[in-house]
Amino acid sequence: MATFWIAAVLGGAAAAFAIAGPWLRESRLAAAALAAVLLIGAAGAFVFSGAPPQPGAPYAARIEALRRTPPQNLTGPQRLALLERVSQERPDDPEVYRFLGDELERAGRVMEAVQARERVVALAPSASSYAAFGASLVALNEGAISPDARVAFDAALAEDPDNVAANWFIGRAELESGDADAAIERWAGVIASLPENDPQRQGLSIEALRVLSQ
User: Using CA atoms, how far apart are residues 117 and 94, in angstroms rounded to an integer?
Assistant: First the structure.
């Protein structure tokens, strides 16, 4: 029965989408946005020179070389090193901490990602920042939805009742507590509200089917 309701909402969407969780958070690595975060330091904007950083150079010199490297040419560890430096220079900029949280998570430094996203919540509370903080807490607890994570997701829904990530995780909590009907109703409502060509629609639909079939 659960599968029927989600499948009915899914309709003709392609079931071949590979789900890697992109619908849980918006992508923040667009080159222009990342460049704006990385290139504007305490002294103003830096100009790209294209000169690659030298591995043997002193740390400060390497950081300055990274600033002059187009973001799309940086490796993950290089982006992370630069974002850590920029976060020291701009401790009150939530955009810096949003990117920093993403890079820390990719690097497997989950506790530090939680701290970065908590900083975003403190600086710029919003549905997306609460949801990202809650998702980091879930990752830190190896998939378990802790009371603190639930508080974050509830705060996200108070800001935006249609937030996809918060609804997904709260639906999971409802399912795990034995209230499958509430989870199905929640997920079906979110899926139905998304445009048919929205990748989040296909992603949430397929993941819901997978979870409900377990």
Answer: 9
3-state secondary structure of 97: helix
- C-alpha pair distances (Å), 104 with each of 112, 145, 175, 179: 7, 20, 30, 34
188 class by beta-carbon count within 10 Å (0-12 exposed, 13-18 middle, 19+ buried): buried
**Given this model, what pLDDT does residue 70 score?**
75
Sign of the CA dihedral running 195, 197, 201, 206: positive
Cα–Cα distance for residue pair 118/137, rounded to 1 Å: 10
Q: Taking residues 46-61, what's their average pLDDT?
A: 48
User: Which residue shows structure tokens 């990274």?
Assistant: 66
pLDDT at 72: 77
pLDDT of residue 210: 86
- Contact yes or no for 42/89 (Cβ under 8 A): yes
Rounded to an integer, what distance in angstroms lies between the CA atom of residue 78 and that of residue 194?
A: 36
